[in-house]
Amino acid sequence: MNELKKIAHGIISLVDHWEKWKWGGLLLLRKRLLYPNKIIEIKLRELKQPVYLRNSTSDITVFYQVFFQNSYNFNYSSPVDVIIDCGANIGLSSIFYAHHFPNAMIIAVEPERNNFKMLEKNCRPFKNIIPVRAGVWNMNTNLRLVNKTDQPWGMQVEETTDQKSDIEALSIPYLFQKYNLKKIDILKVDIEGSEKELFETGTDDWLPYTRILCIELHDHLRKGASQSFFKALRKYEYSMLKRKENLIFFLNHKV
């Protein structure tokens, strides 16, 4: 029975990949099977440039979330000029945005060194993506990495007084100043629990200038993350929708 289930699952996967991506989907499956624990190059008809994934890691899961399940694909009714991608990982969400908004400035922020190297590799063809190796916090400080899983997406950061730390923490107001921003059209936040600190203090300096928030909350990684977020949001009017693991908030204020 288990063998029959595996065969059925394999057939369904083949059909799904063919319907979504035709030959590109089948080649993706082939590379996943033939090259475990290798960096694989993926070419799909909907992507202008190839993307690179570390096979047998969470890169594969994130790839399917972004491009197969379309986790970030929803109705953007107004022009999009500025996007900040907090927790950009290997750059897949930034690439999704670059395809949909080729004229937007996309600031892709990722603290973990190996993820960031992959981000730079993947985003190099896109002139409108600005890679920034840092964590996002409620102030500029130093951070250290903590990984309680064995997967690249599980990297968390904690504030540290260690001056030897090579990870900067940057605040949203700092990014406003550095890149001369007047607004944020889309703020994507997937920072493995650090949303607790990000939304705890100082949000009045930038939330009034943010139009759309796309966030994944991680109370299972950092207790109080959701409470911190919704407390910061309670003074604003918004509409909300859920897209897979993401909560999307349309803030009802003029920017």
Could you explain how this protein is built, in words?
The mean pLDDT is about 90. β10, α7 and β11 (about 210-215) form a beta-alpha-beta unit. The chain contains 8 helices and 13 strands. It has helices spanning about 1-20, 25-35, 60-70, 90-100, 115-125, 170-180, 195-200, 225-235; strands spanning about 40, 50-55, 80-85, 105-110, 130-135, 135, 140-145, 155-160, 165-170, 185-190, 210-215, 240-245, 245-250. The protein is about 35% helix and about 25% strand. α1 crosses α2. By secondary structure, the chain is of the alpha/beta class. It is globular and about 55 Å long. Strands 5-4-3-10-11-13-12 form a 7-stranded mixed sheet, covered by helices on one side. The chain has a 4-stranded mixed sheet with strand order 6-9-7-8. It has 2 domains: about 1-70, no CATH class; about 70-250, Rossmann fold, CATH 3.40.50.
Concise overview:
This protein has 255 residues and is α/β, with parallel strands linked by helices.
Major sheet size, sense and barrel closure: 7 strands, mixed
Q: How many beta-strand elements? A: 13
Gap between N and C termini? 58 Å
Q: What is the CATH-assigned architecture of the largest domain?
A: 3-Layer(aba) Sandwich
Question: Total helix count?
Answer: 8
The CATH class of the largest domain? Alpha Beta
Label the structural class.
alpha/beta
CATH third-tier fold name of the largest domain: Rossmann fold
Number of domains: 2
Radius of gyration: 19 Å
Q: pLDDT below 50 for ≥5 consecutive residues: which ranges? A: none
Helix proportion: 25-40%
Task: Give the helices and strands as they follow along the chain.
Answer: HHEEHEHEHEEEEEHEHEHEE
Shape: globular
Overall mean pLDDT: 90
Name given to the CATH homologous superfamily of the largest domain:
Vaccinia Virus protein VP39
Per DSSP, what share of the residues sits in E-state strands of 2 or more residues?
Answer: 25-35%
Oligomer: single chain
Spatial order of strands in the largest sheet: 5-4-3-10-11-13-12
